[in-house]
Amino acid sequence: MRTRSTVPLAAAVALAAAAVVIGGPSAPATAAAPAPLFVAPTGDDSNAGDLAHPLRTIQRAVDLAQAGTVISVRGGTYALTTNIQIARSGTASQPITLTRYGAERVVIDGEGLPNTPAPVGGSVPRAQRGAVHMAASYWRLIGLELVNGPYGLYCDGCNGNVFERLSTHDNYETGLQIQGASSNNLVLNLDSYRNRDPRKNGESADGLAIKEGSGTGNVVRGARLWHNVDDGFDAWMFTSPITVEGSVAYGNGFNRWNFPDFAGDGNGFKMGGGDPDPAANHVIRNSMAFGNAAHGFTDNGNPGSLTFDHDTAYANPKTGFDVDSSTSRLTANLAVGNGTAVALGRSTGSGNSWNLSSVPAPASTDSSVLTGPRTATGAIATSPFLRPANGADLGARI
């Protein structure tokens, strides 16, 4: 699977820390990059924040950051009593970076926050949503693990951000949620799993949601979304096109927490919906949905013209491709072992498995490589899982 090329984390930190301005007498004046900031569990917020004298809290570093600052967080668990609030924006040319230091494991633990969980039938005040709560633009969050929060990462009114190689799991709401007026955000190589919502008996917590808002240019690439209580991906009430590429949703919508009156939906990719349903022309390509409790891919009432291209739906008990509310275009998609292959309605397509006289068998139904460790670059490891054994140009190649 192709992924966006990135500079290794340690190299990025080193480059930022070593940045200098070079020029002779005639060279134009150039502003030096801000000094990097470092955070460590053994630090002190009264420190200068350099590598030898790190800060103690991520919030202090966030408050000190300017456009172009790189914040490097040393390994350890950062147990929160108030959530991390990111309100200051970087710029398009000088984003602010919040990253783990090298390959060290950084866990941001929200178990001590309010609303973990909220009471049944309760709501989470907006400012308390997320172990990390963002209302800012032009940030890069890289390599962090967000757990046990009232949402993992919640971003409302965000533009031009990159969320790269994050792990958001075991939160009391959606793992990563973007909403409001939010444009040009990239979610790259996300792992989001086992998120649940006791307050709604499973009706709300997804792996990843871009919902209840608008804004062009939002892209999801290389995400794995699994064992979440509601859906893998949810685009409910988002009125602008979202692009999803090279992503996987599996095992979503099962009541692993024994919630009473269980309300989880269990779709792999929920590509819209609302009350009333807004039309949004989302695009999803080279992606897989398997073993979810309901549909693999669904327009969920979205009346727009969506694009489904080279996607694979496998072993979903309802419909592989449920697109009978939209006027979608489906090309070279593969549906195997679902309750129903497709609910087409007014949607059209060509070269899909249901257009063939016989559906090719998969080369492998062993998902262990795809669901196992990522590669050194953060990509999903390549395997023959669910590829047609006869080499037909059908479905996803991950």
Structural class: mainly beta
Question: Taking Cα atoms only, what radius of gyration do you get, to the nearest Å?
Answer: 22 Å
Our measurement of the CA-to-CA distance between the termini, rounded to an integer number of angstroms, reads 5 Å
Largest sheet: 12 strands, parallel
* Helix segment tally: 2
Helix content range:
under 10%
Number-wise, the strands total 32
| Mean pLDDT figure | 93
Question: Strand order of the main beta sheet, please?
Answer: 1-2-5-8-11-14-17-20-23-26-29-32
- The parts where pLDDT drops under 50 for at least 5 residues are 1-27
Strand content: 25-35%
| Rough outline | globular
Could you outline the blueprint of secondary structure elements for this entry?
Blueprint: H1 9-17, E1 37-39, H2 58-64, E2 70-73, E3 76-79, E4 84-86, E5 96-100, E6 106-109, E7 132-134, E8 139-142, E9 144-147, E10 153-156, E11 162-164, E12 167-169, E13 176-181, E14 186-188, E15 191-193, E16 208-214, E17 218-221, E18 224-226, E19 233-234, E20 242-245, E21 248-250, E22 269-270, E23 283-285, E24 288-290, E25 297-298, E26 307-309, E27 312-314, E28 319-322, E29 329-331, E30 334-336, E31 340-343, E32 348-350
